[in-house]
Automatic annotation (TrEMBL):
Transmembrane segments: none annotated. Pfam families: HTH_1, LysR_substrate. Coiled coil: none annotated. It comes from Terrabacter aerolatus. Belongs to the LysR transcriptional regulatory family. Keywords: DNA-binding, Transcription, Transcription regulation. SUPFAM superfamilies: Periplasmic binding protein-like II (SSF53850), Winged helix' DNA-binding domain (SSF46785). It comes from the Bacteria. This is LysR family transcriptional regulator. Residues 6-63 form the HTH lysR-type domain.
Length: 303
C-alpha cells in the first residue's frame, strides 16, 4: 500500500499549536492564513485517519493522538533542518572551490597575477588550475570539468558563453643574427607563409590565429611543432628559426635584445583573450570574481 508523505509545513503547524496553544498563533508563526492552515490540518487528518485537533469556540487544541504525533513531527522537522544545514554546507564548500582551465599562453603569463589578486580578497578559496591548449579548454568547459576557462582562440564553440578580458598580439621573432633582423622593410605576408616556422601545435589559440591569418596563402611545412610558448621561444633563441608567438611570451627577451620583432605588412595578428563558461549566462561566485579581476587588470601589452 502506497503512502503519501506529510507536508512539512503542516507538521510545523502542529508543533506551533503545541508551543503556542492555538492554531491561529501557529499559523501566524508560519506566515500562513488561518483558513489555509485549517484546511491543511484537516487534509493531514484525512490522510492519517487520525483526529489531531479538538476544535472549539476558544480555538483548536491538540487531541491526545495529536500530542503523540507532535513528538514525531518535531523529530521529522529536526531531521529536515539538518538536511538543509548539510545542503548549505555543501553549497558553501562548492563556493569555496574554483576550477580554472586556461590555455598555455594565458596560464603562463596572466593567470598567476589574476589568481594572486583573487586570493587577496578570498584567502580561503581553494583553486585548481588546469593548463591545456584552447581546444582542450573548450572541452573541459563543455563537460563541466572546470568552472571557467580562459583562451585566446579566435572563436568560441556554440553553446558556450564568453566575454573579453583583454587583448594580445602575435609577433614574428628572430635572433639578432637572423637575416630578417636586418631588414629595412616589413615582411610581406606571402614571405612569412612561405617560410618554415617554429609553431605551436594544432589546437592551440596561437596556431589557430596564425593559420586563420595566412589561410589564403601557400604555406611551408613547419620546422617544429611544440606544445608551449616557452618551448617555441627557447627554439628561436637556439637559432632553430623564426616563430610567431604571443608578445606575452617574448617581451623580456625583446626588451633585453636577445630577440628581435619583425614587422609584417598588413597582417592582423591581434586577438582577444576570452573567459568562457557554460550555463548560466551570468557567472556567479568565485568564477565571476576571477573574470572581473582579469578584466580589471591590464592584459593589453606590446613589446
Amino acid at each position: 500500500m502506497s503512502r503519501s508523505w506529510p507536508d512539512l509545513a503542516v507538521l510545523a503547524l502542529l508543533v506551533g499549536v503545541d508551543d503556542l496553544g492555538s492554531l491561529g498563533a501557529a499559523a501566524r508563526r508560519e506566515c500562513m492564513a488561518q483558513p489555509n492552515a485549517s484546511r491543511a490540518v484537516r487534509r493531514l487528518e484525512g490522510e492519517l485517519g487520525v483526529t489531531l485537533l479538538r476544535r472549539g469556540a476558544r480555538g483548536s487544541v491538540l487531541t491526545p493522538q495529536g500530542t503523540v504525533l507532535v513528538h514525531w513531527a518535531r523529530e521529522v522537522l529536526a531531521d529536515a533542518g539538518r538536511l538543509l544545514d548539510a545542503a548549505e554546507a555543501l553549497r558553501g564548500a562548492r563556493r569555496d572551490e574554483l576550477a580554472v582551465s586556461a590555455s598555455m599562453t594565458v596560464a603562463e603569463h596572466l593567470v598567476p597575477a589574476w589568481l594572486g589578486e583573487l586570493r587577496r580578497h578570498r584567502p580561503g578559496l581553494r583553486i585548481h588550475l588546469l593548463v591545456h591548449n584552447s581546444t582542450t579548454v573548450f572541452e573541459q568547459v563543455e563537460t563541466g570539468a572546470c568552472d571557467v576557462g580562459f583562451v585566446e582562440s579566435p572563436s568560441v564553440p556554440r553553446g558556450l558563453h564568453s566575454c573579453t578580458v583583454g587583448q594580445d598580439r602575435l609577433v614574428v621573432v628572430v635572433t639578432p643574427a637572423h637575416p630578417w633582423a636586418r631588414r629595412r622593410r616589413p615582411l610581406r605576408p606571402d614571405e612569412l607563409a612561405a617560410t618554415p616556422l617554429v609553431v605551436r601545435e594544432s589546437g592551440s589559440g596561437t596556431r589557430t590565429t596564425l593559420d586563420d591569418a595566412l589561410r589564403d596563402l601557400p604555406r611551408a611545412e613547419p620546422l617544429l611543432e611544440l606544445a608551449s610558448g616557452a618551448a617555441v621561444r627557447a627554439s628561436v633563441l637556439a637559432g632553430v628559426g623564426p616563430a610567431v608567438v604571443s608578445v606575452l611570451a617574448v617581451r623580456e627577451q625583446v626588451a633585453a635584445g636577445t630577440l628581435r620583432v619583425v614587422e609584417v605588412e598588413g597582417l592582423a595578428l591581434t586577438r582577444r583573450l576570452r573567459a568562457v563558461w557554460r550555463e548560466p549566462r551570468r557567472l556567479t561566485g568565485p568564477a565571476a570574481e576571477l573574470v572581473a579581476t582579469a578584466r580589471r587588470l591590464d592584459t593589453s601589452v606590446s613589446p
